Model the fold of this input.
Amino acid sequence: MPQTQQPTTAPDFGGMASGADVGPTVGLGGYLENAAPVTMARLRFDSGYGDNRPDRGEFFYAKCGCFNTRDAHGPPLMEKKIDYQDLITTAEYAFSQRFSAFFNIPVRFLNPEVNRDTAGLSDISFGGKYAFIYNQHRVVSLWLQVQAPSGTLSTGLGNGNWWIEPGILYLEQLTKKWQLFGQFMLQTPLSKRSDFTGNMLIYGLGTSYVVSQGNWGYVAPVIETMGWTVLSGKEFNPDAGAAVAARGETIVNGKFGVRIGFGPPALGTPYPTRSDFYIGYARALTGTVWYKDLLHIEYRRFF
Done:
């Protein structure tokens, strides 16, 4: 007798084959990127203190002009410490529940110890993310960001390089109130303006838990840790008065804050509230630092 062929079921790959009409709450972290594609506007303010290697890998600003070489385009005097404030406007648009595009426009206020204070447009960036896993409990997205050299080099407002930053973002909805999230990225130059220009790994892990909610909104404390490992490039060492290799330097920061949602929350849905606010503090946990202390404030509005 002929055998009846059993229907086959395509593998789900954690929700990849299913519709994305439901999903976890948008990321409630502070510093780590949100894995879920969204339509939003965000205003972010960072105030960092004690950056003693601003030209490390040319990630913050360009090679110190004190070297007096053709590729030294940064501020003219050697620095031992700078403080800064970045005000970043972000717009993200979700074309679908799996794909979004975004851009960032940063304005920097630079307060060096030796060079003159300055303010103005820093290096803009743009990109997109695609959630290849999206289900009720998990979002995993591919991330790609491009940074363009739009800040003035000689005053420390930009680094002068084109950068590309591929990566992966992760969000796990453990319960309606509890999230786990992380990221892993590689920042690499598309152009190299000097021998200081390098590559860097960026990674982090965090968690948040809603401890209180009501018609007024919700409160969710956030704990995160972020790390940066420099793979190549150089930096100016003010103690030695010379350029040294930055390869292998690893920086780890602890970050603590609270996210507050406004309005009656709907935890477990893509948008728990239509707007929220975050305030947090970051502290360097290693001797090598980007900054010793940082204040982070942001406001998000979802559409």
Observations:
- The radius of gyration is 21 Å.
